[in-house]
Amino acid sequence: MTQRHYDAIVLGAGAAGMMCAMTAGAGGKRVLLADHADAPGRKILISGGGRCNFTNIHTAADRYISGNPHFAKSALGRYSPQDFIALVDRHGIAWHEKTLGQLFCDGSARQIVEMLAGECTAAGVTLMLGRPVTAIGHGDGLFRVTIGGTEWSAPGLVLATGGPSIPKLGATGFAYDTARRFGLSVVQPRPALVPLTLGAEEALFHSLSGVSAEVEVRWNKTRFREAALFTHRGLSGPAILQISSYWQHRTGIGVDFLPDAALDWLLTQKRERPRMPLRRALAASLPERLAEALLEKLDMQGELGNLPDKALRAIQARLADWRFAPTGTEGFAKAEVTAGGISVAGLSSRSMMADHLPGLYAIGEAVDVTGWLGGYNFQWAWASGWAAGQAIAESA
Ligand code: FDA
Hints:
Layout: E1 8-11, H1 15-26, E2 31-35, H2 42-46, E3 53-56, E4 64-66, H3 73-78, H4 81-90, E5 95-97, E6 102-105, H5 110-122, E7 126-129, E8 133-139, E9 142-147, E10 150-154, E11 156-159, H6 174-181, E12 186-192, E13 196-197, H7 203-206, E14 212-219, E15 222-230, E16 234-236, H8 238-244, E17 253-256, H9 265-272, H10 278-283, H11 288-298, H12 309-320, E18 322-324, E19 328-329, E20 337-342, E21 360-362, E22 369-371, H13 376-394
Parallel strand pairs: 1-2, 1-11, 2-7, 11-21
Antiparallel strand pairs: 3-6, 4-22, 5-6, 8-9, 9-10, 12-20, 13-16, 13-19, 14-15, 14-17, 15-16, 17-18
Helix pairs in contact: 1-5, 1-13
This protein binds dihydroflavine-adenine dinucleotide.
C-alpha cells in the first residue's frame, strides 16, 4: 500500500532539497522529496560549464548578500566546504581548484547529482519526479500536499524550489507564493550574477563583443578584480556578474581598465618614450580593439611627447574609473541566481525553520541569501539544506 504519511516533505530536488532530504533520511526520518521536473538537480548538471563549481574554500558570511548579513553564519559554520569536500572524497569524485578557491569536478557535474541521489536512496528517501504540486494546506500540526493528484501529509514541509532564474530549466517563484501564504515575507526578488546592458549611445562598446580584459569594477564601496567581457548587449564576465548582484537601477559602475598600472604611468611613458603613439601605449596593456575604442571615446591621439601632462593625467584618471551607466540587466532568463527571496527575518538561522510556524522550513536559493560567483551559492544550498535536514532529524 502506498504510504501517504511522511515525517517531512521536501519540495524541490535541487542542490538544497537533496542535501536536506538525505540528511533527514540518514537521521532516521521518512522523507518524500518531490520535484515537478523529470530529473533531479538540473541546475547542478549545467553548473560550472558542466563541471560544477561545487564549493569555495574561502566561504564566509561576508561573501553573501542578505537582508541580515549575519544570518548565513550559523549554517555556513556548521556545514563547511570541508564537510562537502569530505563527502565528495568519500564518493571518489576527483576535483581541482581552478582559481580564487573555486573547486570543480575533474570529470562531470553529473557525478555530484549521482552522489546526492545515491545518498538519498541510501537514506531511504522517496523521490517523486515529474508531477506538479497542486495544493498545499496546513492544520492540526500537519502539512498536506497534493502532488500528482494524491495527498501526502507530514509535520515537516521544506521549501527548496529555488528562485525564478533560468525559467526554461523549470525554475519558478513557487517558494515565494507558498511562503507568503504561510505568513512569511518575501524580499523583492531580482536577477543576480547577471550580465548588464548598455544603451544605444554605447554602440561603440557593443561592437567590442567578445573582447575581454582583466579589470577592477566598482559600485559604491564594493569592488571585484576579475575579467570583464563586452557583449553585443553590454557587459558580462565574472567581474560584471559579481557587481551585478549589488548594482541598483539608475546608478553607475566604475571600471578600472588598468588596475595594475603604476601611478602616473602615462607620464613615465612620455618621459621614456616621447615618440610613442598614445594608441600604442594603451594597446601595450589592453586588448587592441578595446584600446582603440577607449581612445575614440577619449577623442585623443598623437605621440606622447606632444600631449600635455594635464591631458595624460586626465586619460589616466578616466581609464582608472571609466563610468558606465547600465540600462538594466539581461533579466532572470540569463541570471545565474536570484537575489532577494524569502525574508530571513522570519527564519531561524540555526534550523531554517519559520519562527511562527513550526515544521515549515525554507532553504537554498529560495531564501534571501545570495552568494558571490565561484561556488558560494552551492555552499549555501548544502549548508542551509544540511541545517534543515539536521533539525528535522532531531525533531520529535
Ligand atoms: P535549484 O534551482 O537547484 O533547485 C530547485 C528545484 O526545485 C529544481 O529541481 C526545480 O525543478 C524544482 N522546482 C521549482 N519549482 C517547482 C515547483 N513549483 N514544484 C516542484 N518543484 C519545483 N552555483 C555555484 O555555486 N557554482 C556554480 O558552478 C554554479 N553554476 C551555475 C550555472 C548556471 C547556468 C546557473 C543557472 C546557476 C549556477 N549556480 C552555480 C547557482 C546554483 O545552481 C544555485 O544557486 C543552486 O542550484 C540553488 O540550489 P537550490 O536547491 O536552492 O535550487
